[in-house]
Structure formats: structure tokens, C-alpha cells
Known about the structure:
six-stranded parallel β-sheet
Amino acid sequence: MKTEKIKVGIIGLNPDSQWASKSHLPALKQLSDTFEIIGVANSTHESALKAADVLEIPIAYENPDALIASAEIELVVITVKVPHHYDLVKAALEAGKHVYCEHPLGNGLTETEQLAAIAARKNVVAAVGTQMVVSPELIYLKHLIKDGYVGKVLSTTLLGSGGPWSDEAISANYYLYDKTNGATMLTIPLGHTLAGVTKVLGGFDTLTAKMINHFTTVKLTDSGEIKPKTSEDQIMVIGQLKNGAAISIHYRGGVSRGTNLLWEINGTQGDIQVTGPLGHGQFVPLTIQGAQGKDTKLQNLPIPNEMYEGLPDNPVIRNVAGIYKRVAADIKNKTKTVPTFDDAVVLAHLLNDIEKSSKG
């Protein structure tokens, strides 16, 4: 029996971009039995026409409003910069469309709460792209903790490198260095990874935070221009989770010559280490090692092969595809298996608490 495909419109798809065309597009093509890409809309019609031509998409809409209003589109995917999320998501929700928006959902807590309230009122599938929480590695890790591999969790430590947010950038990424845009090291690499940490270990009870900006200017390497930098490049958090465990976090801008992602979970019966090549837990391959009982050193804890069945090998595409698979299931079954806008609100509260604490 042939099933009706979910018709998708993407806002913010450029063949030269490093995200949507290299993650959302191949993920949707991987799931072509379930989804059909109908159209694209960008900041200009010319840009949309180029994307549609190069990427073989049927319709180039004149603007995002036209895509949202189209009867052809069921699911609106929003992959533009954070400051534009609110207006586009709100319009899509008010039009009764299902939405998949990249994280951060809103530029700050207030926007996120408002969008979640609209989504609840419209009763549509509203997914936020915290892709780490659907990765096979994280799902397996959650099973390990739930099944008592480490016993009672006593503490957890998270160390990560954000990648950007040092003293150099290309012009296209400069918006990340202007804190008012809401696309900072706190909200993106640490935010994504905290979505995974709290999915496994539960939320925070208390916290104290400090954020530091070592570099108040950034050099644009492609133009030589020196511009202001207001986004912090060092973030430190200590606190206690609701399960009683102590937590310590340090994220830093740039890339380390040593460790770039280390998440350790220590318990009464064992220890687990999760490592990766960068502090963006949402798009890097994760390795899990553990030891328990009389073990004297860590050993690999391989993820069962069946957890990767039907998913791409590339972790960036795989985790985005994981969100899409859940979106499809939620549309079909009227369930809530995908990270929702309500989940985005919980995460936004945590990030807001870190921000407030850092200001004293």
C-alpha cells in the first residue's frame, strides 16, 4: 500500500551553505519514502531560484510568506539565522503548518516561550533541532545509565571546545560573535550538548556560572576587518542535578590541541566516558567507554549495530534524519517523540539561568 508523503518546504536552503544543504537535504533524501521536498524560500527570490535549480527542488517561492501560505506545504523547515526564527516560526504555526526549526528556537527565553504557547494552541507537530538527543549514541547511553551500569550517579563532568568564538572568523560567521543575535557558544554547542546531558541525567536543581570574554574584537580573515566581539569564549558552570549528582562544566572557544569533548559520568558501581572531536554533541561521532565493578580501566562500549539501521553513516546527516523520522511518526500517530517546543523552553530556562548567574 502506497502511503502519502509529507510535503516539505525549506526556508533557508543555499547550495553553498555548510548546514542545511549538507544536513537537512541529504537527510530528507535518505527518507524519500516518507518525505517529498516541494519548495524552497530564501531571503530573495533570486536565491531561491538558484537553490531550486542547483538542488533540483520543484518550486522556488518568491518569499517565505508564500511558502508558508502554500497549500502544497505541510511541514515548514526553518534553517535561517536565529534572529529570524521567531517571525517565521510564528507565521508557520499560525498557518497551521507542522514545523521543524533549528535550535535555538527563539532569540532568548521570551521568544521561545511565546512560540511554544502558539504551538500548543495550534496542536501541530513542532520540533526543535536539538539533534543530539536522538543520536544512537545518546539513546544507548541513556539505556546504560537507566539499567544501572554506573549504579547511583554521583557526579558528572563536561569539557568541550566550541570551535568558533576565538579571535578570528570568516565574515559569513561574524553574526555568531554578536551576542544580541542569540547564536553564541552558550546557546549553540553548549546548548545542544546540555540537551543531551539532561536527557540522560535529568535537569538541574541548582547552579552557579561564570562567563568570560577574553577577546573583545575578532579579525575577519577573509577581509582583514577588525570588528567587536561580545559573545563569551569561556563558560564555567558548577551545580547539582535533581538526582543529587554534582555537575561541573567548562566550555571554551576555539579548538584544543588536546581534548575537545569529554563527558564523564561517575557512579557508585562504575564510570563512563563519552568523547568526541568537538564540543558540538549534535554533529560529531561519539565514543562511549566504561568500567564497572572490579574493572581497572575503561573499555569500549560499542553501540549495537541495529541502532544504526536505516540511518546514514555521517553523524550530521544521521542525527538530523533521526529528528525527521520522529516528526513523521508524530504527524502520523499524533504522538510526541520528537524534541518539542516545550523541550526548547526547558532548555532556554537552563541557558537563561546560566546567563543570569554569570552576571552575579
